[in-house]
Structures are given as C-alpha cells and as structure tokens.
Specification:
Layout (H helix, E strand, L loop, with lengths): L1 H16 L56 H14 L4 H12 L2
Helix pairs in contact: 2-3
Keywords: Signal
C-alpha cells in the first residue's frame, strides 16, 4: 500500500504537466476546407415606378360611380317591419315574431 501512496502524487503531477490533445472531431486532415460557404448574390433591386405627371392640357380624370347599397341596415329593416306590424294591429308578441321574420328576409 505504501508504494501506491508514493506513486499517486507523481502520476497526478505528470498528468498536470502533459498538455491535453485536441479532440478527434476537431482534427481536420488534409487541406483546410472553407468553413463557411460564400454568401449568395444579392437580389436585384426592385423596379422603380415613376407615376406619370399630369399635363396642363389633359382633362381631369372622371370620378368613379358610387354604387348604391344593395341592402339596408338591419336596424332600418327592423324599424320598417315593426311599423308594418303596428299598422296591421298585431299584438306585441305577434309583432316581435313578424319583425324577426320580416327583417331576416
């Protein structure tokens, strides 16, 4: 056991004095390859659009036609349906049922 106690400090000192080697995955044999591929070429610049400048003699552009609303709002339809139901002298429950059916058509 005594020789073991004497050899341990020598082995520890020898291990600390020997420099560590590179990891095997870090060793590249042969020529050094390029680590990064070259960057791709930049994209072409976007086309520049220059709007035409209006000339003094040109007629002004014609305005676009305003399309009428295809359907009236729900509130307007329900008001008209309630008015029609009231004119027909329906009871409040019948007026509610009539206005629901009338406005959702």
């Amino acid at each position: 056991m005594l020789p073991m106690k004497r050899i341990v400090p020598w082995l520890l000192a020898a291990a600390l004095l020997v420099p560590p080697g590179a990891a095997s995955a870090q060793i590249i044999l042969g020529t050094q390859p390029s680590l990064l591929p070259p960057p791709p070429a930049p994209p072409p610049p976007p086309p520049v659009y220059v709007p035409p400048v209006p000339q003094l003699g040109d007629p002004p552009p014609t305005p676009r036609a305003q399309l009428p609303n295809q359907r009236r709002s729900f509130g307007d339809r329900i008001t008209d349906c309630l008015t029609d139901g009231n004119a027909a002298r329906l009871s409040p429950n019948d007026r509610a049922a009539y206005s629901r059916g009338c406005a959702n058509q």
